[in-house]
Design brief:
alpha/beta; Rossmann fold
Length: 275
Amino acid sequence: MSNFLTLDGHRLAYTAAGQLGAPPLLMVHGWLSHRGVWRQTVPALQDRYYCIAIDLLGFSDKPAHADYGIEAQGKRVLQIADALGLGRFALIGHSMGGQIALCIASMLAPERVTRLVSVAGVVAGRLTPKVENETYPLIALGMALPQVYGLWRWLTRYRGLVYSAFRTWFYDMRSVPYDEWEIDRRMAFQPGIHASAYRAGQAIHALNLTAHLDKIAAPSLTIHGQQDGTVPVSDAHLAAQRIPSHRLALIDECGHFPMYEKTPAYLDALREFIG
């Protein structure tokens, strides 16, 4: 069931699962994504954690001129924690959400994070060449001409075009049942997302966390697909080198969404660390 909070006049959705008195776990999605990305993760952890999966500003409520910087989004996550009465919490983020989680744990409130998990999280502020050279220019086009998002939504009715458009998401796209990630395709091109998608992309580029990682005090885990086509696997190795108390779980034959493509291996790594 969806719940809502209003922060600075903006309505943000979140989903909570588990026992209210259990240790809290905040879950932060990535660029062009949504809180539903944790739909395999929440059932695996809700028996021991109070799981709160949030929709970031720009992917729930989508004001055109808000601050979509990584630090600004991190401060909103902390505001959500405050509104829910959470002093300290575990934190998991995927992709840009991993960048936000790393920012919180290193720059904004390291004392509040009990455990940290980055799933294909951005560290150095750059994505793979294919995303940089192909995806970003399309997002910039969508900012200039918002009507193209309607065309893209229409084109996603054709499976061949979908496989071409989202090929950076998976190592083997056909290993993930097509219908199981239909909502993720829809959320990437949802109406009204043109401005926030563009500005969130700029925000990813604007923050290189390399010099801040040694400030992370919480035990930390990075889960990363060896063949990630979106976030370079070198970012995972960078986190392993710089974060003081860190584990690295690399999953072979896996792309940017290990929770979808290699669910058992992903959940095994997560349970071993966070449980």
